[in-house]
Amino acid sequence: MSNHPIPGSELLDGVSGEELFSVNLGLTYRDFLVLPGYIDFNPSEVELDTKLSKNIVLKRPITSSPMDTVTESEMAIAQSLMGGIGFIHYNNSTEEQVALVRKVKRFENGFIKDPVILSPNHTIADLDATKEKYGFSGIPVTEDGTARTKLVGIVTNRDVDFEPNRETKLGAVMTTELITAEEGISLKEANNILKTSKKGKLPIVDKQGRLIALICRSDLQKNKDFPFASKDNSKRLRVGAAVSTLLESRDRVAALSEVGVDAIIIDSAQGNSSYQIEMIQYIKKSFPHIDVIAGNVVTQAQAANLIAAGADGLRIGMGPGSICITQDTMAVGRAQATAVYKTAQYAAKHGVPVIADGGISNIGDIANALAIGASTCMMGFMFSGTKEAPGEYFYENGIRLKRYRGMASLEAMNKGGDKRYFSESQKIKVAQGVSGYVVDKGSVLNLIPYLVQGLKQSFQDMGYRNISDLHSALRAGKLRFERRTESAQAQGSVHGLYSYTKPTMRVE
Question: Quick check: helix, strand or coil at residue 186?
């Protein structure tokens, strides 16, 4: 950093954050811009370390939402590998949620612990369907199609590409001369076997010849190293999980604690309640090693109650999500930018980080959320439709899609999403969310680096090297903002063209 005064540093255009949000009018991320600062560093020098909660530090300010079409174990693993964290939803039984958390905590980079398996009696058509569903081939074959029996072969594209009869059984075409490795082998040793054998897959088997794991050459090449991975003190990936405020969730928290969950989100549409305060106090007393993220809240008074109860972090947002209709249906909520600024302003005085949850559809929204006080951003829409999101792909009018639904949609509520609304059991359910479909966005392992690079460039434009400095400038009034009229918003986006190609979020 230069010791010379920054040219023009004494001239302040725009307004401070406090002035921007002093107007009695709710603002969204699109209603303002951060004015540019002074550049004397490269985007590569920007550090995005941040706090998820009082005790958990992440390398990337990115988290995935606890929605049943967004975060299960595969998404949570990818989020942690890329420096963020995923929160596994609770639209399932306690046993199912615990199993998903356990998969993340037991994950070893490079080892696929629960590979897709077929049997010799499956057909090539079954293999085609598996490839369509999961996006890969090279499937291990066991005697009965499960991990309970002996590995007998592998079937790959080269075994079936030129077979005209797709009803041919895999037992007739699979490769049976296998190179395997025994359970307990290190990733480095397994990698050496793959190199010398020139095989694409290396099955890991136990002493009885049963499949334990699978290592893929393509995964090793693509995912050699994850220097920003979010790990606990035992070098296991970090993972969060959602619970409700219902009394039954106390047993769920106990079970999640047993498998090493790092953070619990108390998932309530309106978090300022006696039920949530009691749940926070119970978790902090019974499981003090688990960080509790409370919410959702949008006002300072709400934030104050949950912080006083012992919350380690706050989740901010009531109605801004792309599939949320709370504000329309209930006439309750707050514009998201105003909600983030006001709650973060209060929470910062108590050392409690806030998560901006909802209303984020591009890199600029993430940058704006961080600029007004958020420490991390939680996204559902951004990560929906990715390879790691739960659900199957399907085609509609030639477009590859995945389902995406709000946890307050009737569809999700019937599966258990109504636990977000603490009330007596109701025969009539009022939806506060919708269901829909999103376009395939590729892998999160490719999408997050794209988001991070854009975010670093935004920080360079703002003139700040890290989130801590950005927040300090916000509180000191040095970070300057400007409101945008509707015509300014229109001018700041694509306009005046006969036609154009919209940049895709899918990154290969």
Answer: coil
